[in-house]
Amino acid sequence: MITIDHVSRSYGDVRALDDVSIQVGRGEIFGVVGQSGAGKSTLLRLVNAIERPDSGSVVVDDVELSALQGRELRAARHRIGMVFQHFNLVGNRTAAQNVEFALEAVGRTRGDRKREARDMLDLVGLAHRADAYPSELSGGQRQRVGIARALASKPDVLLSDEATSALDPETTRQILALVQRLSADLGLTVLLITHEMEVVKQICDGAALLESGRVVEQGPLLDLVNTPGSRLAHDLFPLGEAPDLPGFGILDLTFAGGEAERPTIALLARDLGLDVSILGATIETIGGQQAGRTRLAIPGGGEATAQAVTFLAERGVRAEAVSSR
Predict the structure, then answer these.
(1) For the chain: N or C, fewer Cβ within 10 A?
(2) 21 and 122: one domain?
(3) Are the C-beta atoms of 31 and 200 separated by less than 8 Å?
(4) Greatest CA span in the chain, whole angstroms?
(5) DSSP letter, residue 242
(6) Taking all residues of the chain, what is their mean pLDDT, rounded to a whole number?
(7) Where is the ABC transporter domain (predicted)?
(8) Same structural domain for residues 56 and 184?
(9) Do residues 202 and 192 lie in contact, with contact meaning Cβ atoms separated by under 8 Å?
């Protein structure tokens, strides 16, 4: 649905994007993760054709946006909805009028605008606040209006630029659940920009890590979890710094899919006769499957740790020796 192919973009001497390639499948929710200055916002401006790449191409639904001009470009943009970090609502317009504004841009009649705006607000659970002004709405409600406005033109693609970073954790969960439901119900392809791994963990099917304008790694989340040394997997399931325990080896175990439901650690302790200690664990549901990481202390140090790694590998569990003393 979205193909970003060897795209580069510079501003003077600053290389904002450097040979970036990302592919997002139809109906997929894909996250682009990175810190400030990584090139995330530039990438989004290229996908909605506000800017053009210096090289490479951006294709959305088999249409190369970077090759369009004039009326064709405007029509293509209407097929892409955009949700912003700070809502970008017009303060002197009601919630319904903000949504109507987007419908006016695509040529709907006055009667259709009023009806369709109410329908969109109902879709995001805010029909009862249609006549409220942005100043009368909570942050979560304002973002629901923003989502309704973005969906008013019935786009195929929804872009999200840090859409939950100004919200509290509970409201963030609600907004992400709404986006996930809308993606499933409407067949939306969602590309979201974020620096929050919790966002990726909650709703994304796949993700890419962007650093200094380059893609460091990318792929389906469960594949990343199973990839040795994946930085995204480590960030998805943070365990903090490993403790210094003389006489113990420290192992970080990564589980994905069925492995998370098996009594692997109990078998490790029983079959190898080890008094294993669990130092930390984080388990989440990703793509309908359990995945996560667990940190173990293995008594005996190097040799026992190596035996444990082999034992776990034979059972489909990736174990990484953090330290061995």
Answers:
(1) C
(2) yes
(3) yes
(4) 76
(5) P
(6) 89
(7) 2-237
(8) yes
(9) no
CA 313, 318, 319, 322 torsion-angle sign: positive
Structural domain for 173, as ranges: 2-225
Q: pLDDT: is 324 or 315 the higher one?
A: 315
Distance (Å, whole) CA 312 – CA 325: 20
The token pair that represents 291 in the structure block = 């995945």
Q: pTM higher than 0.90 for the full model? A: no
pLDDT the model gives residue 74: 85
Please state, in angstroms and rounded to a whole number, the distance separating the CA atoms of residues 268 and 11. 55
φ/ψ of residue 158, rounded to 5: -120, 125
Please report where in the chains the tokens 């499948």 appear, as a residue.
25
Integer Cα distance of 145 and 201 in angstroms: 24
Last residue of a domain, one of 169, 204, 225: 225
Pick from 199, 234, 220: nearest CA to 289: 220
Answer whether residue 232 is part of any domain: no
DSSP notation for 108-151: --HHHHHHHHHHHHHHTT-GGGTT--GGGS-HHHHHHHHHHHHH
287 vs 182, residue with greater confidence: 182
